[in-house]
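Issue 218. Parser rejects a valid record. Input:
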Amino acid sequence: MNKTYIFPLFLLAAGGCTGGRGHDRPNVVFIYADDIGYGDLSCNAGDLGNGSRTIVTPNVERLASNGLRFTNAHAAAATSTPARYSMLTGEYAWRRAGTGIADGDAGMIIRPERYTLADMFKDAGYTTAVVGKWHLGLGDEKGTQNWNETLVPGVRDIGFDYSYIMAATGDRVPCVFVENDTVVNLDPDDPIAVSYAENFPGEPTGKDNPELLRMLPSHGHDMSIVNGISRIGYMKGGRKALWRDEKIAGTLTEKAVRFIESSKDAPFFLYFATQDAHVPRVPDERFVGKSGMGPRGDCLLQFDWSVGQILDAIERCGLADNTIVVLSSDNGPVVDDGYQDQAVELLGEHRPGGIYRGGKYSSYEAGTRIPCIWSWKGRIAPGTVSDALVCQIDWLATLADIVGVRLPGDAAPDSQVQRDAWMGKDPQGRATLVVQNAANNLSLIAGGWKYIRPGNGTPYMKNVDIETGNSPDPQLFDLASDPAERHNLAADCPQRVDEMSRVLEEIVDGRYGLPLSSE
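Output the parser choked on:
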């Protein structure tokens, strides 16, 4: 697929907004959280005895009060890279090799020939942008990037006109921002070098030089030190380009707001991917100590602030009547994910996954059941709640239907047009959904039941204190009566296990199965 990109003048624009010129097609803004669970946002606090409002997120509540909040929305995977791949391509990540959790020096996982959500909006005449965490690789092949030159292929090759991203994640090197596929503030006299194989001579590490750290690792995360925090992987050079962890949220939010302000006169798509709750958690001083739960809780408040900044910009620019705002998360929560930041000790009564079992990495519900809100003034009834089974993998086909794009025949093979469900008009949503955990073990959700296919891997990740759902035996749960997945009914319901296993295998091989019985 040949792709041509025009870089518009908005990249040079700055500052305020006095109201946008109207156009027929809705703007679309994704606010995509990182490692934020269903129970982390106060708008979900009352669901199914979900717990107290231990964290208050008023801006997220503001969005929910103006739109539709989902109780049964899922990421396609329980970890970042495959969830993002599935969302942007409309294809289950387990269908593609190399879509697991990406190193910081991974090559582009979504190849230029792959049709993406951004391509779809380009076909509809939209200006497109991604701001924030990327974690889908850059350059051609793993470990071959020259970080001192324009990275090819880059995100502009998969449909984004403008980009200001973190190369991977906050805990992985290189710890630099990349704007339009070029490292920001790079000094040519201090070139960047990156390795995930061995350290560079003379460079300190968290393992060997703990006296240089302001935050100690709890497991892993003991390689190169940047800003007093040791990371995964090794790097040297690029000192002027290194981000300050405290300022990541503010920098990314400012870039997202400026894009909105500069793009107000024509339809635009913004994918704003925040870092906040992902480790290392280093909130801005404005939020330090405000939650009473340590850095993780403070970062949830910081995320809510970013949401408020985006909503304010949309309103200030006169775009509230014609903008779809989607808020969600890439996977479920994790408390201790590699640093001693007191997240466990200060958790108190807060339950990041709500009533749900598991968390990030897991086949159980807290791994993929995530917070999700859709808002579209005048089209989606404000303050409503839906129990429909929905998944981020359907955003591509559904939004293509909304903006009037006919997808190429080979695009988005697993994405379904679920317009009525996302608009609050269909209370059922998907008939079937396949989700994957960190070990690439698959589960099928259908008809209020969940079948976890037998698979390899540890049943419990001690480092993060999370049950993975990995088991050599089948697992079956009646989510309607047992949403916390405490009672495995596989031995009691062998016929249902056989039927759900059959449907899952048909989906895996592309046949998509016969309907489940109503028995």
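Fixed in the parser; the record now loads. The chain has two domains: 36-180+255-420, 432-508.
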